[in-house]
Amino acid sequence: MIKTSIACLAARTVRAALRMMGKGATTLPGKIALKIDPDIISRKAEGKNIITVTGTNGKTTTAHMISDMISSMGINVINNISGANLQTGVATTLVCEKGRGDDMYVLEVDEAAFAKIAESLGPKVCVVTNLFRDQLDRYGELTHTRDLIASGIAKTGAKVILNADDSLVASIGDGIEDRCVFFGMDKVSMKENNEKYPPRKGVIPASPDAVFCPVCKVRYEYRAHSFGHLGDFYCPSCGFKSPDSRFEVIYDLGTSPSNDDYEYKIRDSLSGTTVDMKQKVPGTHNLYNTCAAISAVTVFTEALKGREGDADLFRSSCASQDHVSAAFGRMEKIDIDGKKLCIFLVKNPIGLDRALTFIADSNDKASLMMLLSSNFADGKDVSWIWDVDFESKAEDLPSNIAVSGQRYADMKLRLEYAGAKVGRSGPNDKAIDILRELIDECPQGGCVYVLPTYTAMLSLRAGLVRELGLKEFWK
Residue 402 maps to which CATH number? Predict the structure, then answer.
């Protein structure tokens, strides 16, 4: 159609102009294309092999892992690497990224946007990572977010990869069992690790995000916990429980997943195959992300080759994990003359709790910098930082702590209430100066951990591009 051609030309021209100006151009081209042709997404997605990834935490990391894994198999992958996951960002990727006829598209999609564009995208595989309380001013309650994702999935014929340990995500599979594949932690591993390594006692209980059965309104019972509300759950009233997973992580927390080359196993119950693994992106939460990525790649290649349950395809997917690297701002470790800088995006209570646990358990922590902002993309309400258990981790955090961002005073107060002493603090325009001082003080082999909210991360990253010559976030 003529208007589609005009929309594509306009979007590509705008992106080229913005890139010449040093701008990311990740959403405006798509916005213009959608204005000219509201059906541009469905037109450009038609006939393409697409995997979508949605959920609260882990979207960017999981999508990045899937992209790296598929690329290592010799397939050209197109993705929204910048994390522009709203309708405009997805449109920009489909319209502006040049490819070949055999391309694979891996698209991270915002939870709310997913309901609007899932049908237009027509994905072959949909991955749902997890659902945690996040930006209530924008998303509303978790059951609403769950319903948005479920409505989007209902409009597709995709294979659906669901987190079996998340009660809300698992419930999306009701009525579509024939096309659902579940992943999660091995239930025996989970129980044994709970017994051998009980959680630290803090003043704040585990995340109450989804502890009630949506049907019975009865509190779930747990045979074992992973973190937050994830675990081997069951409803004592109606019997709804954590589904049996096809893909499972078998693990032992005798050594910390916070450290490099953590060893674990992944089992595919359908093929009866278990593979020894070494973690490429550290952190307990990334065991879930890795399992989700391997599940998606395995299911996609099985459908492509018509060989469901083929052990060789599963092994190939596991082997491709060796080519995975951290995504921008998600456990991204940058070497600076023998010192390390690690950036870890945080945006909700469970994400910050995981980050603090990771740092507390790490063996290279030298200092910690936290950046809290409250722009629209961060969530205007920052009271969520009081729902995080800083107290049980405070004594294991680095002694050298700094805070910045628009709401640095709020974060400083929260840390001091937890018993953690803050050395340096200041607003956004001081962030790079503070970080430079932390890097200068960092010993060789040590790591400066940085935990920013979203817009604070973009601002900091822009400064690091200038200071350290890092590549731009859209590259």
Answer: 3.90.190.20
Mapped onto helix, strand or coil, the DSSP state of residue 462 is: helix
131: tokens are 């659902």
Helix/strand number for the chain, H first, E second: 16, 17
pLDDT recorded at residue 475: 53
**CB proximity list for 24: less than 8 A, separation 6 or greater:** 18, 82, 84, 472, 473, 474
Q: Look at residue 371 and tell me if it is in a domain.
A: yes
Please spell the DSSP secondary structure of 157-173, one letter per residue: --EEEEETT-HHHHHTT
The Cβ of residue 326 has, within 10 Å, a number of other Cβ atoms equal to 22
Amino acid 139: pLDDT: 52
pLDDT attached to residue 156: 96
- Reduced to 3 states (helix: H, G, I; strand: E, B; else coil), residue 297 is helix
Residues 158 and 299 both lie in one domain = yes
Q: Are residues 173 and 245 in the same domain?
A: yes
CA dist 465 and 461 (Å) reads 6
Q: To which residue do tokens 């840390």 refer?
A: 415
Q: Which of 293, 323, 353 is the last residue of a domain?
A: 323
Could you count the other beta carbons within 10 Å of the beta carbon of residue 348?
Answer: 22
Q: How many Cβ atoms sit within 10 Å of the Cβ of residue 265? A: 16
Return the sign of the alpha-carbon dihedral for residues 240, 173, 154, 59: positive
344-to-29, 77, 326, 461 alpha-carbon distances in Å: 28, 25, 10, 12
CA 18/CA 430 separation, integer angstroms: 28
The answer to whether 380 touches 406, Cβ cutoff 8 Å, is: no
28 in a structural domain? no
Same domain, yes or no: 229 and 358: no
What is the crossing angle of helices 2-20 and 87-96, to 10°?
A: 90
* Strands of 212-251, DSSP E: 221-225, 231-234, 247-250
Mean pLDDT of successive 10-residue stretches along the chain, which has 475 residues: 89 88 85 94 94 95 95 92 87 87 90 94 97 67 89 96 97 94 97 86 64 87 92 94 97 83 95 95 92 97 91 96 82 85 90 91 92 88 91 90 95 94 91 92 94 89 72 53
> Would you give the DSSP letter of residue 241?
B
Distance in angstroms (rounded) separating the CA atoms of residues 135 and 144: 13
Which helix (H) or strand (E) element contains residue 31?
Answer: helix 28-36
